[in-house]
Write a structure and sequence with these properties.
Shape: elongated
Strand content: 15-25%
Distance between the termini: 21 Å
Largest sheet: 6 strands, parallel
CATH topology of the largest domain: Rossmann fold
Bound molecules: nicotinamide-adenine-dinucleotide
Structural class: alpha/beta
């Protein structure tokens, strides 16, 4: 049994992770932390009391519960500090929180090596989203004119989504950076053409009702190709999260992307 603690345990994703970890026979929920502490983790997710009380101090929870893995679904502005605290205590972070900067990821990679504590980050834990990204990279070799539309619920803090940025990064591995659209085009309203990553445009939609969705649209002569993925609920991420909890201790350094640990 791998000992797991959950950071951001009372949030939308955190609660889904609590449930998934409790129900996975190879994982043991030993700790939970959230700004809103005090609840019994099992009771919080409707599985009955399990004696794991959600704490409010990350280091105190680590000291009390000796986890091997910390799953983090908190906020873009706190995930880095959480990960640093965990790594320094030899606990492997499995990070789902999006919004880490490239500099922060580089620092986590250094820290991971220095403390001999592997770290795993996935911008998207849903298998279908990983396939969407792999297929988009493949398609971009042949259809390099591409735009991304990502659609999320209106509580999301960061834009573009981590998935959209990861998709763009993977497409950039096979597509030369170049300006798309009319070189003479102007925006009558700032932002109308979306964010610009290597000339690819990314559009972020935020509306109630959505969970996490993305379309990658390729355009060619007389044709378009659309690759779309929809996470319809937060359970879609749980097989990926549990897999990462089981694999992270055997990784080396910082590993990014679910595709790196899928068989
Ligand atoms: P949420 O707001 O519902 O939950 C965040 C929780 O973190 C809250 O309960 C909050 O109290 C808690 N929190 C805030 N600061 C904290 C701290 N310092 N220590 C401990 N807990 C703290 O958000 P959410 O919808 O669950 O999303 C969380 C993150 O996960 C976001 O960054 C989101 O983009 C990301 N996300 C990633 C994936 C993926 O597959 N990688 C999927 C969905 C969401």
């Amino acid at each position: 049994m791998i000992k797991v603690m959950v950071s951001g345990a009372c949030g939308r994703m955190g609660q889904a992770v609590l449930k998934a970890v409790i129900e996975d026979s190879e994982l043991e929920l030993v700790g939970a932390v959230d700004l809103a502490g005090g609840a019994d983790a099992g009771e919080l997710v409707g599985l009955g009391k399990n004696g794991v009380i959600v704490g409010t101090d990350l280091e105190a929870v680590i000291n009390a519960s000796s986890p091997e893995v910390m799953v983090d679904f908190t906020r873009p502005d706190v995930v880095y500090a959480n990960a640093v605290k965990a790594i320094k205590k030899g606990v492997s972070p499995v990070i789902g929180t999006t919004g880490l900067s490239d500099e922060e990821k580089a620092e986590l990679a250094e820290l991971s090596k220095a403390n001999n504590t592997p770290v795993f980050i996935a911008p998207n834990f849903a298998i279908g989203a990983v396939l969407m990204m792999l297929m988009a990279r493949q398609a971009a070799k042949y259809m390099p004119e591409v735009e991304i539309i990502e659609l999320h619920h209106d509580k999301k803090l960061d834009a573009p989504s981590g998935t959209a940025l990861q998709t763009a990064a993977m497409i950039s591995e096979v597509r030369k950076a170049h300006v798309q659209g009319n070189p003479e085009e102007t925006e009558k309203v700032a932002g109308a053409r979306g964010a610009d990553v290597d000339g690819m445009r990314i559009h972020s939609v935020r509306l109630p009702g959505y969970v996490a969705h993305q379309e990658v649209i390729f355009g060619g002569l007389g044709q378009t190709l659309t690759i779309r993925h929809d996470s319809l609920n937060r359970e879609s991420f749980m097989p990926g999260v549990c897999l990462a909890c089981k694999k992270v201790r055997n990784l080396e350094g910082l590993v990014i992307g679910l595709d790196k640990i899928m068989d």
